[in-house]
């Protein structure tokens, strides 16, 4: 038995050494180590080996199997290396590489960058806040009554611990006033979430840009001038802007802002683009109570706030007919906006 195993080892190593391609390598593996291979057949003969020889034969069997396996792996590595070398032999490493396609910014990013740039020039600083919010920051501090539809589970995403996905970035305004004293002039771009059915004009996750200015003697004229300047810088100096009275819990008086949209081949029409107003004194009173001081005493300060959807700004700026195009990540669509 020992002599037979030595013969198998010798034959296997010789055969493997002579192999020149991968098919020959597989043939050798099956011929010696396969289910019907020579070494496998020899292993089956262990039951006939005398008891006193089983240890020596078993050791020899493992030795031969290890040697054949190692030889197969070494030959396989050599064949792969030779194949790679042959493939690279025809390559001229001095040739210039093929140009890679350039990436581009998403249309929402273009709009955000431009909007932030305009407002930064007007003295607004960037502010951030968490997307998972408390009811106090998202509703109570913003003078939103408990029976307001926005607080219903059919409109807002709530967690089991009572927190929620913010429905607007107005919560950043509250967090800023908690930490800073007037004058405050901030903008808060970011994501917001509502239980809206997704269609051409609505998404359940969207992007907002909100602003807040608090100081002494802030008036409606300041708000109107700020937004008119902003929209004319963003869409052009001839952009028509109008303000319509509206209602928001956290501002009084409140207004919706419309732009006159001129589409090629269509009659001009007004489209709602933003909400705004003078900050309701109740908001300042709630913040003052939370802070425990008179920094936001509504009898001494005033302010204005505004909010707009970046998704809608992008639709107007680029003539995008369907909001869903902004989230489908179709490269053919996005390549139009690469700069």
Q: Which class of the largest domain in CATH terms?
A: Alpha Beta
What's the CATH superfamily of the largest domain, by name? Bira Bifunctional Protein, Domain 2
Overall number of structural domains: 2
Low-confidence stretches: none
Task: Just name the CATH architecture of the largest domain.
Answer: 2-Layer Sandwich
Which class of secondary structure composition applies to the elements?
alpha+beta
Query: Could you give the order of strands across the largest sheet?
Result: 1-4-5-9-8-7-6
What is the share of helical residues?
40-55%
Strand content: 15-25%
Task: Sketch the topology as an H/E string, one letter per element.
Answer: HHHHHEEHEHEEHEEEHEHH
Indicate the CATH topology of the largest domain. BirA Bifunctional Protein, domain 2
Shape, per Cα inertia axes: elongated
> Count of DSSP helices?
11
Number of strands: 9
User: What is the alpha-carbon Rg in Å?
Assistant: 37 Å
Largest sheet: 7 strands, mixed
Mean pLDDT: 89
Q: Span between N and C termini?
A: 76 Å
Blueprint of the fold:
Blueprint: H1 2-17, H2 22-33, H3 38-44, H4 54-89, H5 107-121, E1 125-126, E2 132-133, H6 135-138, E3 164-165, H7 170-179, E4 184-193, E5 205-215, H8 220-235, E6 241-248, E7 251-261, E8 269-279, H9 281-291, E9 302-309, H10 310-318, H11 331-334
Parallel strand pairs: 1-4
Antiparallel strand pairs: 2-3, 4-5, 5-9, 6-7, 7-8, 8-9
Feature tags:
single chain; 339 residues; alpha+beta; BirA Bifunctional Protein, domain 2; 2 domains; 7-stranded mixed sheet; two-stranded antiparallel sheet; 11 helices
